[in-house]
Amino acid sequence: MIVGRLIVLIAKYGLFGIFASMLIENIGIPLPTEGAFLVALNMVAHGRYTFWEMYWFIVASHMIGALVAYGLGRWAENGLMHRFQQSQKFVDAQLAIQGWYKKYGSITVLATRLIGYVRPWSSLVAGLAKFDFWPFLGWSFVGTLLFVYPTMKVSALLVIVWQRSPAAHLLISLSILLSLSIVFILARFLKPKSKSV
């Protein structure tokens, strides 16, 4: 029911609600943006905006959130590190991800924009890792373009199937659950291993 309330709140504020949802999620606060996508698609379905107008609005919202998070990581590092330095897990994760940025560079930026589970944190970590700004901006933009389009299309298709076929509700729900399970398993599998000293 929380997601339902969130959708109502986003819808109440329209474009600002969509923008705020995308911004908040992209600065590292785990707020599900699915509700914002559904509100956006509803606005498109009712002719308030075209698909492409809404697409570019969502891309811009994602990018603004990514830039804010990058800036917080890059220029507010002392404040962030002071707050989190007691957590050895945070320090270990930061060191591992910084290593990924050094080893894989731009591919890391692109890949993390495509994976919903890590996307909210990726820009903050890029800033903490002092990843170069212009490659970060370019690859974040490409990754966001590649993420938003299929997300909007798949969401629109699911809404249509959901509305037209009550029998598909269970299948859609199980598919979403399976997808989330795969993401969770991948996150556990890809989690950096602690090295014993």
Describe this structure in words.
The protein has 197 residues and is mainly α. The chain has one domain. The chain has 9 helices and no strands. The protein has helices at residues 2-26, 34-45, 51-75, 77-84, 88-104, 106-114, 119-128, 133-164, 168-190. Helix 1 (2-26) packs across helix 2 (34-45), helix 3 (51-75) runs parallel beside helix 7 and helix 6 packs antiparallel against helix 7.
Would you spell out the secondary-structure blueprint of this structure?
Blueprint: H1 2-26, H2 34-45, H3 51-75, H4 77-84, H5 88-104, H6 106-114, H7 119-128, H8 133-164, H9 168-190
Shape: globular
pLDDT averaged residue by residue: 82
Helix/strand order: HHHHHHHHH
Helix content: over 70%
Q: How much strand?
A: under 5%
Radius of gyration: 18 Å
**Strands, total number:** 0
Poorly predicted runs of 5 or more residues: none
Distance between the termini: 46 Å
Task: Describe the largest sheet.
Answer: none
Helix vs. strand class: mainly alpha
- Domain unit count: 1
Total of helices: 9
Please describe the structure with a list of short key phrases separated by commas or semicolons.
single chain; 197 residues; mainly alpha; 9 helices; 82% helix
